[in-house]
Amino acid sequence: MTEFQSYALDIGATLIHGKGVHFKVWAPYAGEVSVHISAPGDITFPLQPCGSGYFEGHFEEGAADLRYRYVL
Questions:
Q1: Residue 69 in contact with residue 38, Cβ under 8 Å?
Q2: Prior bond to 40 cis, omega within 30?
């Protein structure tokens, strides 16, 4: 019988109800990473390096209907 382990990764876009969206992405070869919000509005904000190739940031105005893309 094979045992499976479950791993919870805290990467991607995580909605924090009433407090916005937290972004975390692994881009070890990128010099900088930002998130471009295309709806609502048109905003680009940089993510901060947080070690081991990860970048993260928090968008307080974010909601469940947020349209975004990462810019490397």
A1: yes
A2: yes
> Which residues, in sequence order, are CB contacts of 36 under 8 Å at separation 6+?
43, 44, 68, 69, 70, 71
| Token duo for residue 59 | 């968008």
DSSP state of 40: S
Name the strand (E) or helix (H) holding 35.
strand 33-39
pTM: 0.82
CA 44 to CA 35: how far, in whole Å? 6
Per-residue pLDDT tens for 24-66?
999 999 999 999 998 777 899 999 999 999 999 999 888 888 8
With residues binned 3-state (H G I as helix, E B as strand, rest as coil), the percentages for the chain, rounded to 5, are 0, 55, 45
Return the biggest CA–CA distance within the chain.
52
